[in-house]
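Appendix C reproduces, verbatim, an entry submitted by the partner laboratory led by Prof. M.T., so that reviewers can inspect both the input and the predicted structure.
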Amino acid sequence: MDRDIVHPGFIVLYSPLVTYHPPGRSSPVQLDHSLPAGIVADFYRDIQASFDGQMIVMKNLDPTEPFGPDAADIPFTKELGVGR
């Protein structure tokens, strides 16, 4: 989008933090939030500041900070009345 190339205006990221490998480790971190401090918050802060389109993040760790006013967090659940 920044280079004026045709783009649908959205991207889908599948498990970007779930598969994160810190430097020097060959296996991904666990889903128990064992990521280095700040990685989750920095990831969500960066995508809010760096992408003007719609971003769908699937199968990922939950944000650790509230989103900005232009972003929405819609969890996909199988529960009526909770998320989608």
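The mean pLDDT is 78. Additional entries are available on request from the coordinating office.
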